[in-house]
Amino acid sequence: MNFTNRDVVSIKDFSKQDLEKVFSIAGGFAKNGYDRKLLKGKRVGLLFYEPSTRTRMSFDTAAQTIGADTIWFAGPEGTSVMKGETLKDTIETVANYVDAIILRHPFDGSARWAAEITTRRTRRGAPKVPIISGGDGKNEHPTQTMLDLYSMLITQGRIESLNVALIGDLKYGRTVHSLSYALSMYNARLSFVAPDMLQIPSHITSFLDRCGIKHSEHSRIEDVIADADIVYMTRIQKERFPDENEYNKVKGLYRISKSMLSAAKPTMRLMHPLPRVDEITLDADDDPRAYYFQQAGNGVPIRAALLALVMGACE
Amino acid sequence: MTGQIQDDSKKKLIVSPIENGTVVDHLPPGTAVKIAQMLGLMGDSIVIIGQNLKSTKFGRKDLIKVEGKFLGEPEFNKIALLAPNATVNIVRDSAITEKRHVAVPDFVERVALCANTNCITNKENVPTRFITASRSPLIMVCNYCGYETKGEELKLKG
Ligand SMILES: [Zn+2]
Q1: Of A312, A302, A308, A248, whose CA–CA distance to A30 is shortest?
Q2: What total of structural domains would you count in chain B?
């Protein structure tokens, strides 16, 4: 599917071929360096209604590194949002200034709505301004999923048929949900490791069943670490538990340390969407299997590739 | 057959007939007023509402009669959201000229609310849109946030 003027709102809108295209352009940047004139004369607007500094810096770096100018705001303070301006009015206004918009917003579905607004503008003769979601509430964060898949590709040489263990808060974690959906296209073998009350929701497992994807549920990391190609760690939040005792009972069980990594394959890579709290101990950072910081770094080529594609600078 | 609606069990007319208009029958008890409001019938139309009438099929039922208005496909679709077993009779010159069963359409626009309170459609003035994932049980997927709203948690706008 043609990428020019396409919105990036949900990972479910992208086929395997679409993702391959993004990964190959990102891989080209990583290998041959960035063409700093690629988006020369173009401007990207970063609208961050939540601060989310890491995501904003990653997008900003990606845009500038291929030559686009960026304008941005972060957090609702000091903006018209404080005066009660709707998302629609802000998008309508900013779309006049920029060639693409990166949107991070606290409400679920806000990215789809923003995309609809800039599409409607085209009926008035305005050019389409593609929307790239940087996370919409608890719903989706599609570029995170893309950089996760890309990280698997470059560390394992393939995404197809990987053995992936997902650990932590699997019930509420949107990165885990999006990643599970995406991995269903790649015939992955998924192991879900979580305390009972935070296990993967049934709407995801029934989706995986319909796709013929093998999956299993576990309560201990030790049960899955030896066979995993990828261990994808997420944080368990205290707020999810009815009382502190319940939380204290499980928190130590879902923590990875350097000594635990010795049971894993040398080629296994440990991933995490960050920020980490204490679910991966500091001593694991220097293990060659620890990959979470490089993973975050992969956000730059992926986001640059997407920007170049949706702004028509790459075929 | 006439357009007169009768209490099924006694075949005795307890809600007066209409000459030209629409009869919406077999509504779950307690839904008639809500449905009439949803259809915007509470303005200047002549509307007769029957509540908790005896029904051989469903035990109790509600019904709505509207004089001088012929409801169509868009209204049938809305009715189906709250009353999946409803039937609609179009009456002309006191005779039923058309009998219809309602059905939830593939796409439901504007009338229903997303059950996800953090959805943009519940936070700002955004017209809702759902894709019907299942009719029985009713499950509608929000076009914006992806949340699956089930029939029992479905609320209508207004
Ligand atoms: Zn919604």
Answers
A1: A302
A2: 2
Look at strands A163-167 and A230-233 and give their pairing: parallel
The pLDDT tens digits of the residues spanning A148-183 come to: 999 999 999 999 999 999 999 999 888 999 999 999
Contact between residue A62 and residue A39 where contact means Cβ atoms under 8 Å apart: no
Residue-range definition of the domain harbouring residue B138: 107-156
Structural domains of chain A, ranges and CATH numbers in brackets: 11-140+298-310 (3.40.50.1370), 142-297 (3.40.50.1370)
Residues in B 91-120 with any Cβ partner in A closer than 8 A? 114, 116, 118-120
- Please compute, for residue A70, the number of CA atoms within 13 A of its CA located in the half-sphere on the CB side: 22
Planar angle of CA A14, A16, A20, nearest 5 degrees: 100
Phi-psi region of A284 (alpha: psi -120 to 50; beta: other; left: phi over 0): alpha
Identify any residues that bridge with A167 across adjacent strands, giving them in sequence order: A193, A233
With respect to residue B5, please indicate whether it lies within any of the assigned structural domains. Answer: no
Q: What is the mean pLDDT of chain B?
A: 88
B55 beta partners: B59
- Nearest by CB to B145, from A88, A109, A203: name it: A109
Burial class (CB in 10 A: 0-12, 13-18, 19+), A28: middle
Instruction: Tell me which residue of A138, A113, A123 sits closest to B127, measured CA to CA.
Output: A113
What is the CA A179 to chain-centroid distance, rounded? 8
Q: How far apart are CA A130 and CA A133, in angstroms?
A: 10
Question: Cβ separation of A107 and B116 shorter than 8 Å?
Answer: no
In sequence order, the β-bridge partners of residue A164 are: A190, A230
Q: Are residues B37 and B91 located together in one domain of the fold?
A: yes
Element (H, E) at A233: strand A230-233
Q: Global pTM?
A: 0.89
Measured between CB atoms, does B141 come within 8 Å of chain A? no
